[in-house]
Design a protein that fits this description.
Keywords: Hydrolase, Magnesium, Metal-binding. With about 625 residues, this protein is an alpha/beta fold. Helix content is about 40%, strand content about 10%. It has 5 domains: about 100 residues; about 170 residues, HAD superfamily/HAD-like (Rossmann fold, 3-Layer(aba) Sandwich); about 60 residues, DNA polymerase, domain 1, CATH 1.10.150.240; about 140 residues, 3-Layer(aba) Sandwich (Rossmann fold), CATH 3.40.50.1000; about 70 residues, DNA polymerase, domain 1, CATH 1.10.150. The chain has a 6-stranded parallel β-sheet, with helices on both faces.
């Protein structure tokens, strides 16, 4: 029940107005959430029936001020698609300052020509070029695409022969390429508003010149271009991030952060490349592309004509206001109404708890425990001990922390820090150790310097501790249950990864005795060495970045199971919208546990079948 008791400080008229506005704002928030996560109508009615308003004595002015700024204090909710005109106008993604375009299939209508030429070559050898093959090579470099086609279709050609045959068919037609709808309008608008733009393509320079022959005036508006095959310093093409990182670095004044760069792509490989570079992506996919692949992008539109620059903090088109604005976005409204399964993005899962707490802090407390919120069950779940009957939403991918979870390194780490602190008459308490556990090294050591009032800087503390640790880390042992679990998941083809706050140098040093186990991981993300990750645990950035490195199709957030031993690490996984199994130190105060999916005393107690994974054989 939400209560605000009577107060003399507000007149009846003001009290009525305030309550009316407050009720409207709560209703608007619930409606907004319902549009994003498909809350049942009965749930909304149940929440609204719990709300009654009375003004509490001596606190009305504080509550009134909180109510006045209520919408401004709510976290911004990013969504990949809109479900009505009001949400579309309000929706805001991270502000961008620079823009990078792909070329083929996005600015120029070349993909049809490319597909026809490849299809003709494959038909010549009795093979069929279908959409699935097309999707795999879309956006890939010329050489990588040729290798995929030759391997998949078993063509009796070398890569060089295939490229040569394709080029001979394409040369004549590429000079007649037309611009894609909306391309000219968008490029001219961004140039007029002094937004730095560039081009990043997997095409060779000579083909770029051939394709843009009739559109030179438009392509001169771009600050620079990166043709991947002509840049030997770019070792890997799309879907790796190298080309977009290189392209972004060549602006005269590069963006302060990769997330301030907006990439336009039409291919899955290109989208993955930009996401792995830490950039935002607007996808303009082929109409045949599956919906789950479109959801990988920050935002998806059917055509560049439908892109709204203001959603990313860019100047709006002159005609994108008023009645015309609502008219142009009706296509998506009707589409979303027709599609009853509105998608749930990573970000709404990340912020649901914060939104609920914002409502609670404003007008009392909201009894959510009695409500039916099945779609959020895996995000905000009370911690439980695992047993044979426990059932959680099924997962498809697994991410492990390293220190203290897979490897017994926390004891060594704590002992080395304590030895350094003793030189200055200080001691590492258990509470201090628990608070720095899982956090990036720099953040954790800065906390120790301030908390213990050490007469040295965080950098000096790191250096002294590192000197002691280097000789001891190679002796680290596996934690109980690790080998059995990792080998079991690998046997059943469950994709696994490691996400650690450690530097790559120290990570490799620690796992040196167990390379056979750690080779079973798909990849390892060392947050300290990833330039794209600007915030470590407990922020979600590390786990979200790690998830994008899995092979496509990428999983939804709640289909990823995170194993953690630290409070900050578990909070990071939860903030990313993932399910979290906490295996904490026995001496950790249970009252400090975050609301993880479940907690275990040891990995030996984990039951894979509780998360829809294959059970152990024994």
């Amino acid at each position: 029940m939400l209560r605000i008791s009577k107060c003399k400080m507000l007149t009846p008229t003001n009290r009525y107005s305030f309550c009316r506005v407050l009720r409207m704002r709560v209703t608007f928030l619930l409606a907004k959430l319902r549009g994003i996560i498909q809350l049942p109508r009965s749930t909304m009615e149940k929440v609204q029936s719990c709300i009654s308003f009375q003004i509490r004595p001596k606190s009305s002015m504080m509550v009134f001020k909180m109510g006045k700024s209520f919408l401004r204090t709510l976290p911004s909710v990013q969504r990949r698609t809109c479900c009505n005109e009001l949400d579309r106008k309000k929706q805001q993604f991270g502000k961008v300052t620079h823009v990078i375009f792909d070329m083929d299939g996005l600015l120029l209508d070349t993909e049809t020509v490319h597909e026809q030429c490849i299809g003709a070559i494959m038909k010549k050898y009795g093979k069929v070029f279908d959409w699935q093959l097309s999707l795999r090579i879309l956006g890939a470099s010329e050489k990588d695409g040729a290798e995929i086609l030759i391997d998949e279709a078993q063509l009796p050609l070398t890569v060089e022969e295939f490229i040569k045959e394709t080029a001979e068919l394409e040369v004549e037609q590429f000079s007649r390429c037309n611009l894609m709808p909306g391309a000219e309008r968008l490029l001219k608008h961004l140039h007029h508003c002094n937004i730095p733009m560039a081009l990043c393509t997997s095409e060779r320079e000579e083909y770029y010149l051939l394709k843009t022959k009739n559109h030179q005036q438009l392509f001169r508006l771009l600050n620079h271009r990166v043709c991947v095959p002509n840049n030997p310093e770019i070792k890997r093409g799309k879907p790796y991030p190298d080309c977009y990182l290189a392209c972004a670095s060549r602006f005269p004044k590069p963006a302060l952060h990769p997330s301030q760069v907006l990439v336009f792509e039409d291919s899955l490989n290109g989208t993955l490349s930009a996401l792995r570079a830490g950039m935002q992506v607007v996808m303009v996919p082929d109409s045949r592309m599956d919906e789950d692949k479109r959801r990988l992008a920050t935002y998806s539109v059917q055509s560049l004509d439908q892109f709204k620059p203001e959603l990313f903090g860019l100047p709006a088109f002159p005609s994108s206001s008023g009645h015309k604005y609502y008219k142009t976005c009706q296509w998506q409204t009707s589409e979303m109404i027709a599609n009853k399964q509105t998608e749930t993005s990573f970000v709404i899962r990340q912020h649901w708890k914060t939104i609920a707490e914002s409502v609670s802090s404003l007008i009392g407390f909201l009894q959510l425990s009695s409500l039916d919120l099945p779609c959020l069950d895996c995000v905000v779940k009370s911690k439980v001990e695992m047993n044979a009957n426990a059932k959680f939403p099924p997962v498809t991918h697994v991410i492990f922390d390293s220190d203290g979870l897979l490897l017994d390194t926390e004891t060594v780490h704590g002992e080395c820090i304590n030895e350094v602190m003793k030189r200055y008459g200080k001691q590492l308490t258990y509470d201090m150790a628990a608070l720095i556990r899982g956090r990036p090294q720099k953040d954790g050591f800065q906390f120790l310097v301030e908390e213990a009032k050490l007469p040295i800087s965080a950098e000096e503390l790191i250096q002294l501790t590192d000197e002691k640790e280097k000789g001891r880390f190679p002796e680290s042992k596996l934690m109980p249950g690790v080998e059995r679990l990792v080998k079991h998941l690998h046997k059943h083809n469950i994709p696994m990864a490691v996400c650690t706050s450690e530097k790559r140098e120290y990570y490799n040093m620690k796992i040196s005795r167990y390379t056979e186990i750690f080779k079973l991981m798909h990849h390892a993300t060392c947050i300290a060495d990833e330039k794209q990750i600007t915030r470590g645990k407990p922020h979600p950035d590390g786990y979200l970045f790690c998830a994008t490195l899995f092979d496509p199709p990428l999983p939804q957030a709640n289909q990823i199971l995170v194993f953690e031993d630290s409070i900050s690490g578990a909070s990071s996984g939860l903030a990313a919208g993932m399910q979290v199994v906490l295996v904490p130190d026995e001496s950790l105060d249970k009252s400090k546990y975050p609301k993880v999916t479940c907690s275990l005393k040891s990995l030996l107690d984990f039951k894979p079948e509780c998360f829809g994974l294959p059970p152990y054989d024994d």
